[in-house]
Fold this protein.
Amino acid sequence: MKLDATDLKILEILRKDARTSFTEIGNALGIADSTVHVRVEKMINNDVIKSFTINVNSEALGKVHSLLMLDVTPGHFEEVVPSLIDSENVEEIIELHGAYVAALKISANSLAEMRDEIVRIRKIPNVTRTEMITILKTWKST
Amino acid sequence: MKLDATDLKILEILRKDARTSFTEIGNALGIADSTVHVRVEKMINNDVIKSFTINVNSEALGKVHSLLMLDVTPGHFEEVVPSLIDSENVEEIIELHGAYVAALKISANSLAEMRDEIVRIRKIPNVTRTEMITILKTWKST
Amino acid sequence: MKLDATDLKILEILRKDARTSFTEIGNALGIADSTVHVRVEKMINNDVIKSFTINVNSEALGKVHSLLMLDVTPGHFEEVVPSLIDSENVEEIIELHGAYVAALKISANSLAEMRDEIVRIRKIPNVTRTEMITILKTWKST
Amino acid sequence: MKLDATDLKILEILRKDARTSFTEIGNALGIADSTVHVRVEKMINNDVIKSFTINVNSEALGKVHSLLMLDVTPGHFEEVVPSLIDSENVEEIIELHGAYVAALKISANSLAEMRDEIVRIRKIPNVTRTEMITILKTWKST
Amino acid sequence: MKLDATDLKILEILRKDARTSFTEIGNALGIADSTVHVRVEKMINNDVIKSFTINVNSEALGKVHSLLMLDVTPGHFEEVVPSLIDSENVEEIIELHGAYVAALKISANSLAEMRDEIVRIRKIPNVTRTEMITILKTWKST
Amino acid sequence: MKLDATDLKILEILRKDARTSFTEIGNALGIADSTVHVRVEKMINNDVIKSFTINVNSEALGKVHSLLMLDVTPGHFEEVVPSLIDSENVEEIIELHGAYVAALKISANSLAEMRDEIVRIRKIPNVTRTEMITILKTWKST
Amino acid sequence: MKLDATDLKILEILRKDARTSFTEIGNALGIADSTVHVRVEKMINNDVIKSFTINVNSEALGKVHSLLMLDVTPGHFEEVVPSLIDSENVEEIIELHGAYVAALKISANSLAEMRDEIVRIRKIPNVTRTEMITILKTWKST
Amino acid sequence: MKLDATDLKILEILRKDARTSFTEIGNALGIADSTVHVRVEKMINNDVIKSFTINVNSEALGKVHSLLMLDVTPGHFEEVVPSLIDSENVEEIIELHGAYVAALKISANSLAEMRDEIVRIRKIPNVTRTEMITILKTWKST
């Protein structure tokens, strides 16, 4: 799907506050609220908008976070991915192909649970190397 | 603010779909929708819910992303942070104190714009070392 | 076992001088010596106090020490641990999951004996990588 | 002070259980308890025995531990040491002159307190580089 | 300048053999040789074709080559570049912003001349770190 | 083939502009154009001149470039080379035997195509480790 | 064999100039030349003096030198050693157990021969990783 | 000085046993002993033969050795060299320009003396970074 300037503006408004009504968005952009509605639906159907969600202050939840660098047997990363995606503890997976193939953001309720998750991930076939770096503070997230 | 099990369940539902109505949430949890309303408001006021937002497929936007590892003169990280937070290109800032003090997630419209942003960050006083790692694919984000 | 403030104070006193009598501890904390006795026994039984020991100046013993960083085949660390614990030369084992899975503190009577111990550890099945760093001076230990 | 075989055996017994009486030690080694007494006193006076202490299960205390690798401006390590020794959070300081000048073992009541201590250490003049590695489990300590 | 498919084909032919005549190119692509001429001139004027050159087998020249990784004081790379571009020994300069800011390809008539060039580069103001890696064989170059 | 000073001068002239006529070269060097012709042919036949080519401004083509560090099972690099040489995306292959066995220069039409090429290379038997570093700008190339 | 102060002085004199006569050594140390003779023979027989040799200026020989860091499958280094000792190109082998198991000093008549030797060493069974660092100048050797 | 095949053979013989007489060398090579004498003198005068020495088994001397990697402020290595050459503890200095500018081989009578020497070297102006790696065994030296 090809996005135009109006689509991008709608995305920008919803990113800042997903509860903004279509009427408010229409007014802000000088277009009809039905047009907003049609465009938003189209962006949902084309997977441009993956979901409506909330941005939670994870420190308020008492969670521990870490960045987990991951390396695998060359050529086998895609086989490892599903088992990472399925984990509740894995919040983010990015593929890098730098010194490590991927970086994950892991959350856990305690350092002990964090260790359990790392141990679990290390047991996935073809994982060859991991490096966990504890996150001490989150200054910005979107 | 101390969260109880009901709060955590509300957060979970909203995280999956922030457009779920309070009535639906109340039905799912067996509590009144007004209770849901009160609790959500309280979590917003206490900064547990930082915002209602959308999860956008950044690849659909044609954006380029990178992980930027950052080191600074010891003792000066907090002076560097504001200039990072203010940048539209900096999506995430996490403080690590591993081999690097922090990791940033940077987005840009092109590799050329990415380079401009890296060059800008390197000029912030007390930045001593950076390492950019291009993100080739995002498999999961929340 | 859940520790309260009095338990923590008893631990603190014993850590500084394990030969402090229960009477002295009781006086210092304003409680009966029999209470001290009961609490200490309970902490021993619950493995909070692992042992009464002496802090020996290992340099006086003419020992050589090293920090040994250790990596193993992912998922097999716990199989390697017993053979490390059993060694007289291995004074400490901490699990990290950083660039290395674990760090050990090794002592030996000479560099030649140190080499023998490293060679022995490298022969334990599933050990994939080691890095020995000689300790030149111990400034503080508890 | 030059230690002989009998001194080493006494140290070994006390290391395993510092509450062993001099009579028991004397019986075990076939020497008078007064001889044990004299030797122990001499080893204390000569700083061979640095202290009588207890080995506490730090996980039972709910503490968080980390290994902190430290680098300083060449030639200035000894100026940095006093400020490290004085800290309650710094349990151990070993001088290495490997990729880092020293390794510290840090304990804290929470990750937030750990961060505060790292930030404090990084502000000590002449500290140039630190790398914190979270300890996930202690398998052996003496 | 915007290139079309015909331009790209012309470039491809010239890259393989820069001595191919415009008539031959025209025949191959089914266009007039004058059209080829006009397009080539335009690409030269717009700096798409930087030069007509020969691909020399540098091993036949008895040259020694190395890859030189380079780091500079953050924010000062562009001041360092001119002194690198001017050197006959520097064949290539690419800006990376990875663990090093840039990589250079250096050629020299001997290892002694290579050392002189490295020493010269290290004396350029704001150069903070270099790592030379000797090239033992070139398998492909374009 | 042994090159003399005249050969080197001819190479130098052709490297700067491969379209310089033999007459012009002969005039510049004070030798007959037929002598230039003979020498150039000999250098082509002896693979000193590998090809006549053009130096294309790859940024004008909208290409993305990266430096790919490559490691293989010791003793198997030469088996990996053919599959690298054959790839259109691999512009350069240099053998180093530093921390990596080789460095490649990869070009692609987009970051997505770059990822595909990296994934393909990682699937070549005996490739054990890769590290991709994105090239953000080319300052000099010959 | 236990060396005394006189032995050490003899070694020192011979190290500076192995052609010093026993009479001269005897005079310098105030002992009989026959005593010098007996002691030198004993040190040769006990392998304290491994050989009488010359210190050659290898740069005068036009040799290329490198430091080769070597890693092997844990537990198999001693099997790799004989094949290293036998090579004329391997001048020195030291066992480290740092980031690499050993460091070698390699000499060769050219970079091409150096590459051949590295390739040969990499084919020795159980060699897992090598890193060659070219020596650009030797400032001191004994 | 240009060496011929006969010179190289003489060097080879002396390297294996510096006490071989000129007559024996002459016989082995089929030349007059006076010719051997003249050539050896010439090689000494031209600094090809730096000295006649003995190869001492340093382990028999009870020495501790280490490899010390050294980095300095770019452009200042030659100022640091004299202070290294003068030290009795520094046996070898090689200039690399890899991840470190130089590698030194250090010997000392004990780990404590080794530490003193490292501390001394780190105080030489312009030394920015050192990494000591203990040598556990020497398998070959020439």
Notes: Chain D has a mean pLDDT of 94. Strands of chain D lie at 49-56, 64-72, 90-95, 102-108, 127-135, 137-140. The first strand of chain D starts at residue 49 and ends at 56.
